[in-house]
Design a protein that fits this description.
By secondary structure, the protein is α+β, with helices and mostly antiparallel strands. The protein has 5 domains: 87 residues, Zinc finger, CHC2-typedomain (DNA Primase, Chain A); 132 residues, Alpha-Beta Complex (DNA primase DNAg catalytic core, N-terminal domain), CATH 3.90.980; 123 residues, Dna Topoisomerase Vi A Subunit, Chain: A, domain 2; 54 residues, no CATH class; 159 residues, no CATH class. The strands form 5 sheets. The chain has a 6-stranded mixed sheet with strand order 12-14-13-15-16-17, with helices on both faces. Strands 1-2-3-4-5 form a 5-stranded antiparallel sheet. Strands 6-9-10-11 form a 4-stranded antiparallel sheet, with helices on one face. Helix 11 links the parallel strand 13 and strand 14.
Amino acid sequence: MTGQITESKINEVRERSDIVELISQYVSLKRAGGNHVGLCPFHSEKSPSFSVNAARQFFHCFGCGVGGDVYSFLMKIEGLTFPDAVRRLAERAGIDLEERSLSPEEERRQEQRERLYALNGTAAAYFHRLLMEHPAGAPARDYMRQRGYGRKAAEEYQIGYSLPAWEDLQQHLTAQGCSAEDARTLGLVRPGKQDRGDYDLFRGRLIFPVYDLTGRVVAFAGRVLDEGKPKYINSPESPIYHKGRVLFGLYQARQAMRRSGEVILVEGYFDQLALYRAGFPQVVATCGTALTADHARLLKRYVQRVLLLFDQDSAGTQATFKAMRVLQAEGVPAAVITLPQGEDPDSFLRSYGGEAFSGLLAEARPVMDVYMEDALSDCTSIEEKVRAAEQIIEQIDELNSELEQDLYLKELARRSGIELDLLKRKRKQRNGKKSASVPLPDEYPLMRESGPAGNTVAPDRPAPTAMSRAEETLLGLLSCHAAARERFIASGGPELLIHPVAVTLAQLLIEDRGLENSDPQSLGEGLDPEMRDCWKKVCAVDRGAFGDDVDVLFDDCLLALERHRKKQQREEILTRIRRFEQLGEMEKAKDLLEEFKKLK
């Protein structure tokens, strides 16, 4: 069932869920007085700062500041939406949720999806059994051993093998009572021509199941055991699989990604397995496609930085820069790991080991640095250098921060030998925007760091002058949806907001229990003029535009606020770098640049 869950059911599920029991499935907890403590699953630490209070049914990490109830923990640890977290905990507690009935068409689609998931599970189990037990799977077992993989890796990923026969899987699925139409929908079998029967898509290949975030098999990839072509065959898209939204290994890697705050993005399935086996579990692979905006948004839920590790050839370089553009558009910082020429992650690890790879990881360079170096590397004439500079300026314009753009323009001037003022004028001519080197406002308060002659440096960020559109929309959601208020509290409450007036209004909204039976406009009575004006803007938001998918809109608002917060942090550091440069304190500027790179 899907639909709106009543507030009474949300409260009932929360009250009947033991937060200590839930978190103990993910974290090793020890009793310490009235609390339970352990290592935080959301950031890397050596001393436990993660505390769970059984009496209050609340958790808090004193290291990274994250906290909340059972819903917020499950949403963060599993990457679930609020309704999915409620459903998961309701199932654990044996509570039936009262949700609206599905329409006949919705029910048909839901039933089809459940059949497709079950069919993929049946196929995955069959492929796996062929690899692990069947005599005909010996060539695949030998191939795995030659590449350094045994039963452990095969079992953890449920790797399988497809027999080199035209109808083996099709006959097995039929014997299991699976629908031939569903098998065709998933692309596991294809209809034969000229009245011939269906035939298998995967034949004589090593099979990699692709999982969604809940651990269900949504697709497969098949690799040849020799040098045959094509090397890989992938499942086509289906009602349960969209390759632009799924990443191989994310189900296995998501917890390690949260702890490290970064992810290594590779192209190949064996590349992902090799890094995972070598002690770098924060690794995922694209499923036979280029990185998409949906991929970037998915990764952004787990990490603060993406490390790109593609093939060290021309095609890999182009894939790296294409991924750079996608990640920049979503505000996700990226860096590049460079391997020796001719090596891939699998071969490098076999030759040099994990310690050597850790060194490469530490030396990862911001992707814009690599892009700039590549664009300028082959320039043998003035004309080529000018064209390269124009391409770099175009990419610099895609950065979210003007201060970051300013920094890279200076770096371009240094590397290209072109005067900085000329580059700025060229940028103005290209897009009509102001130069990135805008003088800092005189009214900015100065931070307390001393430069020469006692001058203070690095203006701090002023308080925002107006609420953002995301804050206005989020407050509008809180004013008319009880479920949004519950999720807002579970996700962190007013601390999620940036503008001080928005924080105050949010607090009023979540404290006003009679809101459903009153006019939202009435909440503005008694407020001071500034707050009343802001509240009028919130009330003017079109509630009808929210639609039924409140959770998606809620997620979008939180993402926009988090992006803005990260942007502010970057701009604050870059502002300080500029001021130190103005004062001639180049060593301090250099130290801050390293801090900026770590933040990226």
